[in-house]
Write a structure and sequence with these properties.
Layout: E1 9-20, E2 23-35, E3 40-44, H1 51-58, E4 67-76, E5 79-80, H2 86-92, E6 97-100, H3 104-107, H4 114-126, H5 130-143, H6 149-152, H7 162-174, E7 180-184, H8 192-209, E8 212-217, H9 220-226, E9 229-234, E10 237-243, H10 244-249, H11 254-261, H12 302-306, E11 312-315, E12 318-320, E13 324-325, E14 330-331
Parallel strand pairs: 3-8, 3-9, 6-7, 7-8
Antiparallel strand pairs: 1-2, 1-4, 4-5, 9-10, 10-12, 11-12, 13-14
Helix pairs in contact: 4-5, 5-7
């Protein structure tokens, strides 16, 4: 399903492969989604489902080779940026589109101060002189909740805690007032208390700055708290997309339902074993010609093993790639 209202980012039929000595790995297969100004889109799925590769493909952050974007369009702010020259794409990266990576310790350069790493994009993208950039860098550290910001510009990444390093990464991503912020599991490496602080920070910054956000995660609990819409990915494909309240109230894909069943339940007896999804995600060494979830699905029937389902509308704001219809309790007619 494609929304016709104004969008800041519109991705259609994106395909990304990795060319290896053992053959091609089909990491992203005909992925389509959109993002409106000011909203937060959650991308959720197991590890290896293609979430991060999809987002890194947008800005050509993957090593090429072995990665190769084989098709699709990436329309940002009314312009297809898939084939723009590298120098123009560098202006978009870190300028119009900010990116927060999962592990701040490996994303920050250990031999440069955090001040240098914030000031550099300000000078490159915003054209600020050294004094202006330093003032702005201190303001950004204050914005993300780092006390004594001016003094801490002189510190190195190892002098910050994990949560503070992630705040520095957020400051860098926000440095050039991006229209879109992509956050790739930014709280995964943090303990639950710091995770909650970072989530509150993102919600506060979104309200203050009005930017659109794509939040990549495997945690549906986080999605329920912060997202407007959610896209569920499995085996390099979006298998369900809906507004977040609709998805939790009326999940239509067996994989989405299985993910929701793995969440801890309020009131469960102490020691209750958490649910799990039987089986393993498929190898992505072939183009999907059938439903990739079929081997793990209790509703799978012959058509699922012979044909790859395309996304169909369940309601105006909800679509799913599945041949099973939960409303009728049987296969769809389509």
């Amino acid at each position: 399903m494609r929304d016709q209202s104004a969008t800041i980012l519109d991705v259609a039929n994106l395909r990304t492969v990795f060319n290896t000595r053992d053959g091609q790995v089909f990491a992203v297969n005909d992925v389509s989604f959109y993002l409106r100004p000011g909203e937060l889109l959650g991308i959720v799925g197991e590890s290896g489902s293609g979430k991060s590769v999809t987002m890194m493909s947008l800005l050509k952050l993957l090593p090429m080779p072995p990665a190769e974007i084989q098709g699709g369009s990436i329309e940002f702010d009314g312009r297809d940026i898939r084939n723009v020259p590298d120098d123009e794409l560098r202006k978009i990266r870190g300028g119009d589109i900010g990116f927060i990576f999962q592990d701040p310790m490996t994303s920050l350069n250990p031999v440069f101060t955090v001040g240098f790493q914030i000031i550099e994009p300000l000078r490159v993208h915003m054209g600020l002189n050294k004094k202006q950039a330093r003032k702005r860098a201190a303001e950004l550290l204050e914005l993300v909740g780092i006390p004594d910001a001016s003094a801490r510009l002189k510190d190195y990444p190892h002098q910050f805690s994990g949560g503070m390093r992630q705040r520095v990464m957020i400051a860098i991503a926000l440095a050039c007032d991006p229209k879109v912020l992509i956050a790739d599991e930014p709280t995964t490496a943090l303990d639950v208390t710091i995770q909650a602080q970072i989530l509150e920070l993102i919600k506060d910054l979104r309200q203050k700055l009005g930017m659109a956000i794509i939040w990549i995660t495997h945690d549906l609990g986080v999605i329920a708290e912060i997202a407007d819409r959610v896209a569920v990915m499995y085996a390099g494909q979006i298998v369900e997309h809906a507004e977040v309240k609709e998805l939790f109230a009326n999940p239509q894909h067996p994989y989405t339902r299985a993910l929701l069943e793995t969440l801890p339940k309020m009131g469960e007896a102490r020691g209750t074993r958490l649910a799990s999804i039987d089986g393993q995600p498929p190898n992505l060494d072939h183009l999907p010609v059938s439903c990739e979830f079929a081997p793990r699905c209790k509703h799978a029937f012959d058509r699922c093993r012979a044909e790859n389902p395309q996304r169909r509308d369940v309601s105006p704001a909800h679509d799913v790639a599945c041949f099973w219809d939960y409303s009728s309790g049987g296969p769809t007619d389509a």
